Amino acid sequence: MSKEKAQRLDKVLANLGYGSRKEIKQLIRQGQITVNDVLAVRPEQHVQPEQDVLTVCGEVVRYRNTVYFMLHKPPGMISATEDTRWPVVTDLLSAEDSVFDVFPVGRLDKDTEGLLLLTNDGVLAHRLLSPKWKVDKRYRATVEGQVTEADVAAFAQGVVLDDGYKTQPSVLEIVTSGPVSEVLVTISEGKFHQVKRMFEAVGKTVTYLKRLTMGPLALDETLALGEYRELTDEEKQQLFAAVRLIGETSK
Ligand code: URA
After folding, report:
1. How far is the CA of 45 from the centre of ligand 1 (A)?
2. Whose CA is nearest to atom 2 of ligand 1?
3. If you measure from the C-alpha of residue 126 to the centroid of ligand 1, how many angstroms do you get, rounded to a whole number?
4. Which of 6, 86, 198, 232 would be a feasible disulfide site paired with 46, CB 3.0-4.6 Å?
Protein backbone atom coordinates (compact mmCIF):
# COMPACT_ATOMS: atom_id res chain seq x y z
CA MET A 1 0.00 0.00 0.00
CA SER A 2 1.29 3.43 -0.90
CA LYS A 3 1.77 5.90 1.92
CA GLU A 4 1.63 8.80 -0.50
CA LYS A 5 -0.77 11.50 0.55
CA ALA A 6 -3.52 12.44 -1.84
CA GLN A 7 -3.45 16.12 -2.80
CA ARG A 8 -5.79 18.48 -4.58
CA LEU A 9 -5.39 18.35 -8.35
CA ASP A 10 -5.19 22.14 -8.76
CA LYS A 11 -2.54 22.39 -6.03
CA VAL A 12 -0.38 19.65 -7.54
CA LEU A 13 -0.46 21.24 -10.99
CA ALA A 14 0.11 24.75 -9.66
CA ASN A 15 3.13 23.53 -7.70
CA LEU A 16 4.51 21.99 -10.86
CA GLY A 17 4.28 25.34 -12.61
CA TYR A 18 1.24 24.76 -14.83
CA GLY A 19 -0.31 28.06 -13.77
CA SER A 20 -2.19 29.58 -10.89
CA ARG A 21 -5.00 27.61 -9.29
CA LYS A 22 -7.42 29.89 -11.16
CA GLU A 23 -5.77 29.04 -14.45
CA ILE A 24 -5.85 25.33 -13.66
CA LYS A 25 -9.56 25.62 -12.92
CA GLN A 26 -9.99 27.22 -16.31
CA LEU A 27 -8.08 24.38 -18.00
CA ILE A 28 -10.29 21.85 -16.22
CA ARG A 29 -13.36 23.67 -17.47
CA GLN A 30 -11.95 23.55 -20.98
CA GLY A 31 -11.52 19.78 -20.71
CA GLN A 32 -7.71 20.02 -20.96
CA ILE A 33 -6.83 17.92 -17.93
CA THR A 34 -7.16 14.18 -17.43
CA VAL A 35 -6.48 11.88 -14.49
CA ASN A 36 -5.86 8.26 -15.45
CA ASP A 37 -7.47 8.87 -18.86
CA VAL A 38 -10.62 10.36 -17.34
CA LEU A 39 -11.44 14.03 -17.90
CA ALA A 40 -11.03 15.99 -14.69
CA VAL A 41 -14.06 18.01 -13.70
CA ARG A 42 -13.25 19.37 -10.25
CA PRO A 43 -10.12 21.30 -9.18
CA GLU A 44 -10.50 19.91 -5.66
CA GLN A 45 -10.39 16.30 -6.86
CA HIS A 46 -7.70 14.45 -4.92
CA VAL A 47 -4.91 12.68 -6.76
CA GLN A 48 -1.80 10.73 -5.84
CA PRO A 49 0.70 12.48 -8.08
CA GLU A 50 3.38 9.81 -7.96
CA GLN A 51 0.96 7.14 -9.14
CA ASP A 52 -1.84 8.75 -11.06
CA VAL A 53 -1.19 9.66 -14.68
CA LEU A 54 -2.09 13.29 -15.21
CA THR A 55 -2.17 15.05 -18.54
CA VAL A 56 -2.43 18.75 -19.32
CA CYS A 57 -3.33 19.74 -22.88
CA GLY A 58 -2.54 16.20 -24.02
CA GLU A 59 0.91 16.04 -22.43
CA VAL A 60 1.77 13.70 -19.61
CA VAL A 61 2.81 15.56 -16.46
CA ARG A 62 6.24 14.68 -15.14
CA TYR A 63 5.81 14.73 -11.39
CA ARG A 64 8.67 15.99 -9.27
CA ASN A 65 8.58 17.18 -5.73
CA THR A 66 12.33 17.47 -5.30
CA VAL A 67 14.51 19.28 -7.79
CA TYR A 68 18.27 19.77 -8.08
CA PHE A 69 19.81 22.64 -10.01
CA MET A 70 23.47 23.34 -10.70
CA LEU A 71 24.05 27.09 -10.83
CA HIS A 72 27.16 28.87 -12.06
CA LYS A 73 26.96 31.57 -9.42
CA PRO A 74 28.03 34.98 -10.62
CA PRO A 75 29.77 37.46 -8.33
CA GLY A 76 27.56 40.15 -6.80
CA MET A 77 24.78 37.85 -5.60
CA ILE A 78 24.04 36.56 -2.12
CA SER A 79 23.70 32.79 -1.55
CA ALA A 80 20.26 33.07 0.01
CA THR A 81 16.59 33.09 -0.92
CA GLU A 82 16.03 36.68 0.19
CA ASP A 83 18.01 39.71 1.18
CA THR A 84 17.04 43.28 1.84
CA ARG A 85 20.03 44.85 0.05
CA TRP A 86 21.40 42.59 -2.64
CA PRO A 87 20.10 40.31 -5.38
CA VAL A 88 19.95 36.67 -4.33
CA VAL A 89 20.81 33.55 -6.29
CA THR A 90 17.20 32.35 -6.44
CA ASP A 91 16.37 35.52 -8.44
CA LEU A 92 18.07 33.71 -11.34
CA LEU A 93 15.41 30.99 -11.51
CA SER A 94 12.71 31.03 -14.17
CA ALA A 95 9.13 31.45 -12.96
CA GLU A 96 8.56 27.79 -13.78
CA ASP A 97 11.41 26.68 -11.51
CA SER A 98 10.71 29.16 -8.71
CA VAL A 99 7.63 27.19 -7.65
CA PHE A 100 9.84 24.49 -6.14
CA ASP A 101 11.07 26.72 -3.30
CA VAL A 102 14.70 25.74 -3.64
CA PHE A 103 17.48 27.09 -1.46
CA PRO A 104 21.25 27.13 -1.90
CA VAL A 105 23.20 24.29 -0.31
CA GLY A 106 25.75 26.20 1.73
CA ARG A 107 27.07 29.64 0.99
CA LEU A 108 29.48 31.16 -1.41
CA ASP A 109 30.53 34.71 -0.54
CA LYS A 110 28.98 37.52 -2.52
CA ASP A 111 32.18 37.96 -4.56
CA THR A 112 32.80 34.21 -5.02
CA GLU A 113 31.64 32.53 -8.19
CA GLY A 114 31.25 28.94 -9.32
CA LEU A 115 29.31 25.83 -8.46
CA LEU A 116 26.26 26.25 -6.26
CA LEU A 117 23.68 23.54 -5.80
CA LEU A 118 20.08 24.68 -5.40
CA THR A 119 17.53 22.17 -4.16
CA ASN A 120 14.46 21.71 -2.00
CA ASP A 121 15.78 18.36 -0.73
CA GLY A 122 16.52 19.18 2.90
CA VAL A 123 17.93 15.76 3.74
CA LEU A 124 20.50 15.86 0.95
CA ALA A 125 21.43 19.46 1.79
CA HIS A 126 21.87 18.62 5.45
CA ARG A 127 24.19 15.72 4.69
CA LEU A 128 26.23 17.64 2.15
CA LEU A 129 26.86 20.34 4.75
CA SER A 130 27.35 18.07 7.74
CA PRO A 131 30.97 17.62 8.91
CA LYS A 132 30.15 13.92 9.33
CA TRP A 133 30.19 13.28 5.59
CA LYS A 134 33.37 15.27 4.86
CA VAL A 135 32.29 16.36 1.39
CA ASP A 136 35.28 17.82 -0.46
CA LYS A 137 34.95 21.21 -2.11
CA ARG A 138 37.57 22.28 -4.64
CA TYR A 139 38.27 25.92 -5.39
CA ARG A 140 40.43 27.84 -7.80
CA ALA A 141 41.92 30.95 -6.25
CA THR A 142 44.07 33.89 -7.21
CA VAL A 143 46.21 34.91 -4.28
CA GLU A 144 48.19 38.08 -3.71
CA GLY A 145 51.62 36.93 -2.59
CA GLN A 146 53.93 34.05 -3.38
CA VAL A 147 52.39 30.71 -2.41
CA THR A 148 55.12 28.30 -1.39
CA GLU A 149 55.68 24.67 -0.49
CA ALA A 150 55.64 25.82 3.16
CA ASP A 151 52.02 26.91 2.61
CA VAL A 152 51.23 23.54 1.03
CA ALA A 153 52.65 21.84 4.13
CA ALA A 154 50.77 24.20 6.46
CA PHE A 155 47.45 23.52 4.69
CA ALA A 156 48.14 19.77 4.87
CA GLN A 157 48.62 20.09 8.65
CA GLY A 158 45.65 22.40 9.15
CA VAL A 159 46.05 26.13 9.76
CA VAL A 160 44.83 28.19 12.70
CA LEU A 161 42.21 30.77 11.71
CA ASP A 162 41.73 34.23 13.25
CA ASP A 163 39.25 32.85 15.81
CA GLY A 164 41.67 30.15 16.99
CA TYR A 165 39.99 27.30 15.11
CA LYS A 166 42.40 24.80 13.55
CA THR A 167 41.17 23.61 10.17
CA GLN A 168 41.10 20.01 9.03
CA PRO A 169 43.94 19.02 6.70
CA SER A 170 43.41 20.36 3.19
CA VAL A 171 45.12 20.01 -0.15
CA LEU A 172 46.80 23.05 -1.68
CA GLU A 173 48.13 22.74 -5.23
CA ILE A 174 50.22 25.51 -6.73
CA VAL A 175 49.41 26.21 -10.37
CA THR A 176 51.68 29.26 -10.68
CA SER A 177 53.64 31.01 -7.97
CA GLY A 178 54.84 34.62 -8.08
CA PRO A 179 53.87 38.03 -6.69
CA VAL A 180 50.37 36.85 -7.61
CA SER A 181 49.79 33.09 -7.42
CA GLU A 182 47.21 30.77 -8.91
CA VAL A 183 46.23 27.78 -6.79
CA LEU A 184 43.73 24.97 -6.33
CA VAL A 185 42.49 24.26 -2.82
CA THR A 186 40.41 21.32 -1.62
CA ILE A 187 38.71 21.56 1.75
CA SER A 188 36.19 19.28 3.42
CA GLU A 189 34.72 21.86 5.80
CA GLY A 190 32.63 24.94 5.20
CA LYS A 191 33.53 27.54 7.80
CA PHE A 192 32.62 31.16 7.13
CA HIS A 193 35.05 32.64 4.53
CA GLN A 194 37.17 29.54 5.05
CA VAL A 195 39.49 29.68 2.04
CA LYS A 196 40.10 33.40 2.40
CA ARG A 197 40.81 33.03 6.11
CA MET A 198 43.15 30.09 5.53
CA PHE A 199 45.26 32.25 3.24
CA GLU A 200 45.14 35.12 5.73
CA ALA A 201 46.53 32.64 8.27
CA VAL A 202 49.62 32.27 6.08
CA GLY A 203 49.86 36.02 5.37
CA LYS A 204 48.23 36.16 1.92
CA THR A 205 45.08 37.59 0.40
CA VAL A 206 42.62 35.86 -1.91
CA THR A 207 41.54 38.23 -4.67
CA TYR A 208 39.48 35.80 -6.75
CA LEU A 209 37.70 32.61 -5.75
CA LYS A 210 35.71 30.11 -7.76
CA ARG A 211 34.23 26.80 -6.59
CA LEU A 212 34.82 24.02 -9.07
CA THR A 213 33.43 20.94 -7.33
CA MET A 214 31.31 19.76 -4.44
CA GLY A 215 31.77 16.06 -3.72
CA PRO A 216 31.33 14.23 -7.01
CA LEU A 217 29.61 17.20 -8.62
CA ALA A 218 31.73 19.33 -10.99
CA LEU A 219 30.76 22.71 -12.38
CA ASP A 220 29.52 22.37 -15.94
CA GLU A 221 31.80 24.88 -17.66
CA THR A 222 29.32 25.25 -20.53
CA LEU A 223 27.10 27.17 -18.10
CA ALA A 224 27.79 30.88 -18.36
CA LEU A 225 27.87 32.91 -15.15
CA GLY A 226 24.29 33.14 -13.90
CA GLU A 227 23.08 30.12 -15.88
CA TYR A 228 21.81 26.93 -14.32
CA ARG A 229 20.50 23.53 -15.30
CA GLU A 230 18.97 20.48 -13.65
CA LEU A 231 21.37 17.80 -12.51
CA THR A 232 21.47 14.77 -14.77
CA ASP A 233 20.22 11.47 -13.35
CA GLU A 234 23.83 10.31 -13.15
CA GLU A 235 24.92 13.40 -11.20
CA LYS A 236 22.04 12.91 -8.78
CA GLN A 237 22.93 9.27 -8.22
CA GLN A 238 26.58 10.16 -7.58
CA LEU A 239 25.62 12.89 -5.15
CA PHE A 240 23.22 10.65 -3.22
CA ALA A 241 25.84 7.90 -3.12
CA ALA A 242 28.46 10.32 -1.76
CA VAL A 243 26.33 10.91 1.33
CA ARG A 244 24.95 7.37 1.45
CA LEU A 245 21.41 8.31 0.48
CA ILE A 246 21.41 5.29 -1.79
CA GLY A 247 23.02 1.99 -1.00
CA GLU A 248 22.82 2.98 2.69
CA THR A 249 25.36 0.94 4.64
CA SER A 250 25.19 -0.03 8.30
CA LYS A 251 27.80 2.67 9.05
N1 URA B 1 35.74 30.07 1.22
C2 URA B 1 35.64 31.41 1.17
O3 URA B 1 36.47 32.10 1.74
N4 URA B 1 34.63 31.94 0.50
C5 URA B 1 33.71 31.21 -0.17
O6 URA B 1 32.80 31.76 -0.80
C7 URA B 1 33.82 29.82 -0.13
C8 URA B 1 34.85 29.27 0.58
Report:
1. 48
2. 193
3. 18
4. 6
Cα gap 196→245, rounded to integer Å: 31
pLDDT of 249 > 70? The answer is no
Contact by Cβ (8 Å): 41, 28 = yes
Is residue 195 a contact partner of residue 185, using CB atoms and an 8 Å limit?
yes
Whether the Cβ atoms of residue 209 and residue 111 lie closer than 8 Å to each other: yes
Write out pLDDT tens, residues 63-93: 888 899 999 999 999 999 999 999 999 999 9
Ligand 1 contact via 209 beta carbon (within 6 Å): yes
Q: Is 195 in the pocket of ligand 1 (CB under 6 A)?
A: yes
CATH, domain 68-131+216-242, list 3.30.470.10, 3.40.50.1000, 3.30.70.580, 3.40.50.720: 3.30.70.580
**Pairing state between β 113-119 and 205-214:** parallel
Q: How far away, in angstroms, is 192 Cα from ligand 1 center?
A: 7
